[in-house]
Every structure is written in C-alpha cells, then in structure tokens.
Amino acid sequence: MIISIISIIFSIVLIYGVLIHKLLTGDSLKRPVLSIISILLLFVTLHIFYFSNLGYPVKSSLPDKFKLQYFVKDEGNLYLMVDGLNGNPPRLHVLDYSANLEKILNEAIAKQKQGKIMIGKVIHANENDYYGIIFNDLERNLPSK
C-alpha cells in the first residue's frame, strides 16, 4: 500500500514537472492531442490506484489468515470487514455472493457474539463456491485459578 502511494506521488510530480518545464521554456506543445490523451490516461490510471488505497471495498484476495469483523449482503455481493493478523489495519473486501459463504459467515459471527475468537483461513485447494474460507476457534490461554 505504501509503495503504491509513493508511486502515485512520484508519477504526479514527474508529470507536473514535465508540464512546468514545457511552460517555462516556452516550448509550445507540438502535438496537443497526444499530450491530452497521455495525460488523460495517466490520470485515469492514478485515479484507479488512488481509490484502491482509500476505504472503498477492494476485490483483491483476502489475507491467508484474518479475523472477521463484520459482513453485509448487498445486491449480489458480500462485503467483509476483515482484520489481517499481520498488523495491517482492517480492510473492506467485496466478494461475489455465495449462499454457502453467507452461511459460513453467519456461523462465524454467531460464535463471535458468544465470545469466541474466530480466525478465518483461506484454503486455496478447497475452492468450491465459498472461496475456500473456513473459520476455527482460537484457543484462549487463561491462567488457572
């Protein structure tokens, strides 16, 4: 995520630097159509990268292990707020709707409401129509009395 933000900033600085250089040297743009199209493509690309770093849901793959915070079903999609266990902040993912996946997520949320800590795992070898996601209880190590 940090690398993509740095690349976005670098690209913007580079493009504006070239444009300012052309304005200061008095060099008129020889091919204005080419300049307009190239700048348009650059800003569309930067726009896509920029929105993938905001808080909007992403279609990227889930982390291998995660803690499910919440999920919502809406218009053929499932929106999952997951907390990666590697120290990254929570991220909103969007997955295509699956009845099996909704059932598994409802069971995990119900167990979390009972006070259990549920850890989700993505098993790539077991990809039916529920994306190969399973949930396991995390054993608590409480001191004896």
* Principal-axes shape call: elongated
Note the run of SSEs as H and E.
HHEEEHEE
Which class best fits the helix and strand makeup? alpha+beta
Adjacency order of strands in the biggest sheet? 3-2-1-4-5
Structure description:
With 145 residues, this protein is of the alpha+beta class. The protein folds into 2 domains: 2-52; 65-137, no CATH class. The protein has 3 helices and 5 strands, in the order H-H-E-E-E-H-E-E. The chain has helices at 2-25, 32-52, 99-113; strands at residues 65-74, 77-84, 91-96, 118-122, 133-137. The protein has a 5-stranded antiparallel beta sheet, covered by helices on one side. A hairpin with a 2-residue loop joins strand 1 (65-74) and strand 2. The chain is elongated, with a radius of gyration of 23 Å. The protein starts with a helix and ends in an 8-residue tail after the last strand. The relative contact order is 0.11. The model has no long low-confidence stretch (mean pLDDT 79).
Structural features:
2 domains, 3 helices, elongated, 41% helix, single chain, alpha+beta, 145 residues, 5 strands
Quick recap of the structure?
Helices cover 41% and strands 23% of the residues. The protein has helices at residues 2-25, 32-52, 99-113; strands spanning 65-74, 77-84, 91-96, 118-122, 133-137. β2 (77-84) and β3 form a beta hairpin.
